[in-house]
Inverse folding.
């Protein structure tokens, strides 16, 4: 199996009306063996910024530790939280540092700008940023996720409806992927 | 054909490892202890490449002792597991340690905990887990028979069932097992077991 599908993962982030939602599956597996059903893939950077990391679990944990460190240092120096675009650039730079020996994870960044407008973006494993106006997906189930999101998504959804849409899109896609699933977690901000 | 498994009970964690030390087709030793007591209330079960296994578990043990000497208090189980994960992760892209680990500990404030740490430094807190070839059998047995908050007697019955399954259904199964426990009174050896003899009968019945 390929290295990015060793542990299995599925992530979505969606934009709503002055809100965003980010969701992931909870399975941690080793090839086809399931180890845990409560693995954390979405991490809070600050109150209005979340990052979801798909791919190899060890790199998910390493990236989270490195990004948390950099953000805490930023907070100490600048005495404020990082803006989502800035954080996305930071993630991209950290990933590209390892261009010829990369971290095998594909992050999704979701946050609210200072004016309350939602921001989502994804990068590939070497830091190529991709901004989006509606939704971004990542993980082994990404092909199903694209299909499900494309058909279920509507612009300007409120928080409750957005929660329903993102949950249904996640659950229906991971049901078609044997190495992701075993539950889901959704954060709506 | 190693196996390492562990699970949480009511106020304790049991860790079981096989005691065989093999080199290709030769059984060099049948009384090898693969579970290290890191400090008074922590156990590190470690299987994998023999040199890495001994070197890495001693390295972690000495580093945790150093922390305690310098700071006057021992690390919590989560902190020790995170430290171990970082050592594995740093070495991963240079000279990886080929060891799979189950770390168990008892903290005064949070009680017993068990951590799974595989050779590529994936850390996960678990209630029950297994590593090695034996895991293919043990995980299914634990899925069926494990209950939360088991007492020691029930826990040992579950250990019996797991050892029986590996002994009967795995080719080249280990000759013996070592069972260690960690609870509020500390980390200690519970018992050593041999391979289940056929006369003893099936503990599943």
């Amino acid at each position: 199996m390929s290295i990015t599908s060793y542990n299995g993962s599925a992530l979505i982030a969606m934009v709503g009306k002055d809100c965003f939602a980010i969701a992931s599956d909870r399975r941690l597996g080793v090839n086809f063996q399931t180890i845990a059903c409560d693995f954390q893939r979405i991490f809070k950077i600050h109150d209005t910024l979340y990052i979801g990391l798909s791919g190899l679990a060890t790199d998910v944990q390493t990236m989270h530790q490195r990004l948390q460190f950099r953000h805490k240092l930023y907070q100490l120096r600048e005495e404020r939280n990082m803006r989502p675009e800035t954080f996305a650039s930071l993630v991209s730079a950290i990933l590209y540092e390892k261009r010829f020996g990369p971290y095998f994870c594909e992050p999704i960044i979701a946050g609210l700008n200072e004016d309350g407008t939602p921001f989502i973006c994804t990068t590939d494993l070497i830091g190529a940023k991709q901004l989006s106006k509606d939704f971004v997906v990542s993980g082994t189930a990404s092909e199903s996720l694209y299909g499900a999101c494309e058909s279920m998504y509507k612009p300007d959804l409120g928080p409750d409806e957005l929660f329903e849409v993102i949950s249904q899109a996640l659950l229906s896609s991971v049901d078609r992927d044997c190495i992701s699933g075993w539950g889901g977690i959704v954060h709506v901000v | 054909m190693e196996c390492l498994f562990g699970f949480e009970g009511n106020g304790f964690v049991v860790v079981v490892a096989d005691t065989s030390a093999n080199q290709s087709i030769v059984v060099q030793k049948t009384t090898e202890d693969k579970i290290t007591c890191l400090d008074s209330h922590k156990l590190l079960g470690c299987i994998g490449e023999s040199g890495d296994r001994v070197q890495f578990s001693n390295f972690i043990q000495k580093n945790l002792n150093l922390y305690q000497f310098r700071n006057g208090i021992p690390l919590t189980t989560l902190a020790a597991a995170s430290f171990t994960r970082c050592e594995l992760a740093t070495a991963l892209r240079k000279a990886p340690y080929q060891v799979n680990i189950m770390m168990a500990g008892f903290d005064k404030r949070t009680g017993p905990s068990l951590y799974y740490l595989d050779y590529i430094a994936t850390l996960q807190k678990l209630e029950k887990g297994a590593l090695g070839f034996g895991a293919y059998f043990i995980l299914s047995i634990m899925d069926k028979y494990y209950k939360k908050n088991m007492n020691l007697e029930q826990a040992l019955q579950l250990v019996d069932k797991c050892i029986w399954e590996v002994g009967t259904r795995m080719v080249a199964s280990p000759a013996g097992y070592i069972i260690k426990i960690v609870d509020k009174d500390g980390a200690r050896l519970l018992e050593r077991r041999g391979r289940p003899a056929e006369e003893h009968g099936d503990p599943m019945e």
